[in-house]
């Protein structure tokens, strides 16, 4: 699953942009997670970059990684030319981008199949105080903080012998 989250930045230096859809001045975190919700790839960029363009930054890293990956689920914000772009990624096994759309007949909240997994990962990350806002000056440091938070989560799960 792939999705993005817009977060505010602290008053430090570094790149940032304005996400007009969410009304956030800061950065976007793009995550690619597996079916358990564990982070495979993360990219942080200014919030003014569209989701489709941010997904290209993230998914371009797949050329030499995760050869077992066949399908990526995404929400309707990733529909369009990105589907064809993902099919063109040069790999030994092709990847298919599947768009999970919301039913218009249902009013209110509806958990979408497979899409809730990446949202749950964002919720796990938001429990870490350092990730509540983007306090880092460099985007590489922000990505490192995401990986540190997920490593800590996995170690605690192993320590407590909890299943995902």
Q: What this model shows, in words?
A:
The chain is an alpha+beta fold. Helices cover 33% and strands 22% of the residues. It has 5 helices and 6 strands; from the N terminus they run ββββαβαβααα. The strands form 2 sheets. Strands 1, 2, 3 and 4 form a 4-stranded antiparallel beta sheet that branches. Strands 5-6 form a two-stranded parallel sheet. β2 and β3 form a beta hairpin. The radius of gyration is 16 Å and the shape is globular. It starts with a strand and ends with a helix. The model has no long low-confidence stretch (mean pLDDT 89).
SS elements, strand count: 6
- Radius of gyration, in Å, reads 16 Å
Range of helix content: 25-40%
Based on Cα principal axes, name the global outline. globular
Biggest sheet layout = 4 strands, antiparallel
Please give a quick description of this structure:
The chain has 164 residues and is an alpha+beta fold.
Secondary structure topology:
Elements: E1 2-8, E2 17-19, E3 24-33, E4 39-46, H1 51-59, E5 71-74, H2 81-87, E6 96-99, H3 115-126, H4 129-132, H5 139-160
Looking at this protein, list some descriptive labels.
6 strands; alpha+beta; 33% helix; two-stranded parallel sheet; 164 residues
